[in-house]
Description:
A: mainly alpha, disordered C terminus, B: mainly alpha, 12 helices
Amino acid sequence: MSGQAVSERIRTRAERGDRLKAGLALPLVLLAAVAGLALFGPLLSPHDPTAQDLLHALEGPSLAHPLGTDHVGRDVFARLAHGAGRSLGIALACVGAATGLGLGLGLIAAYAGRWSDMAIMRLADLMLAFPGILLALVISGFLGGGVLPMLIGIKLTLWPQFARMARAIAQGELKEPHVEAARLAGFPARTLLIRHVLPAVLRQTTTLATLGLGAAIMSISALGFLGLGLQPPTPEWGAMISELLPYISEAPVQMAAPCLAIFISVLGATLLGQVLSEPDSGQEAER
Amino acid sequence: MRPALTLLGSRAAQAALTAWLLATLCFGFIHALPGDMALRIAAARVGDERVTVETTERIRREEGLDRPLAVQYAAWLSRVATGDLGQSLVSRQPVRQEIAYHGRFTLGLGALGWLVSYLIALPLGIACGFAPGGWLDRVTTGIAVALASLPSFLVGIGLISVFALSLRWLPPAGYRTGAHMVLPALTLALGLAAFSVRIIRNAVVEVRGAFYMTFARIRGRSAASAFRHHGVRNAAIPVATFAALQFAYMVDGFVVVEMLFNYPGLGELLVKALLARDVPVVMGAGLVIGLVYAGVNLLADLACLALDPRQAARFPA
């Protein structure tokens, strides 16, 4: 390869890296804003997010209440900030649990093959065929709302995608010479899968997990909005919106705040997932 | 014909499996719930304060809750299989009747929303596909990404505050007139169009770059004629496949949209039943939604088969 061609390649690679960095800026800023709200918001606000003050209900923004108060006089900023931690925390837990379950089952399907592969993938198909929120809805509804039912419900809707991806990559990886060598050297299946196959799968997991995070935040707020998620008076964005809905004309700022918070966090996660899933960007990011 | 029949068979199996899973899930939930089932039914019927031991025991006998679990499960399955979904625990109406009543509203809303979404997405997606990277394409992509990041209740609230509260053109909620359907249908449509516009755009871009299009042009067809004769059908395949996938989004959408707009469809029935722990209604509504979903998938598969005879190879008889 001539020197010129090499420098050409280096240049385009650098350019692509720059483009990737530029694409990462917006989603990272959006997510950092939400994470900042979750971490520092509760420290900034002196108010208890569940303390009612009926004499000061539905007041507009002021120095004491930067985002105003809701229909029972609770500080909206405090509720927003406490809600941020909950939404993000639960969403991360959902995605983490779904990733664990999905990767585990996907690896088993790829390694064991035959009927366990069939059974796991059929189950995944069935779950994917099932309208997403319906399952979360039914589980949360029957178990009476709260964190755990929501976690189970959302995890169940997310895992099949991870399982499919893990299985596809693991099937390819298991045929690789270095895995074959490890197998011939007598390593047990567990070592084979965890040491040699899992790393390849994990490299592709970030994108799916990021997109899943956005989906989980949306589901959590939708469940909260329907009254089937976290139970009042817990501050949660979706629940805040449905509580304030009758007062939408009197309290536009209080209403807009949680709406914007949901939008920013989902947009951040979605954009990040899109940037990461663009061809080349995965390898570029590793270099 | 053979491929169509194979397809029908596999989709019917999928539907049956979905139904069985749902029925079993619901049965499992009823019995896994903490506390006494008969007591909960009694509380739902007469109110928490007026429940007595006698009513509870009477309900336990009436609903067969004193029999062994396996017997109850068998009885439950055979009843569901024959289409008997039981009575609502709250309203005491047959579940089938409730679903038929609310289902009509959802069907109307869903059909309208779906139609409007393609009225928006088709022209826009095709226009973007003909000028990828142009200003229209970039603006559309931006809006589509933003819309896709909004849960449907936020889109709905935005529409309510603009068209119902500020402009006062349309009623914010309810279902008495046709005007009441505009905002919920538009909410659904925007959510659907946000995804389908990208699919349509990409399908058009791909088809326009395809070799058979170049060949048609070489043979002397005009660009428009080549697209009409070779492009449309090929571009329609991914769009038809995606239209079925969108049904899943629609279910998420209409549950939330109906609650937001106070629209008496299946979604509202489902959520209210969940809040009241009205198990037969939950199961009935879930069952109907699941079965319709399997049906929609079948329709999309058949449409693909009609559009693309090559796909017959996918379904060996």
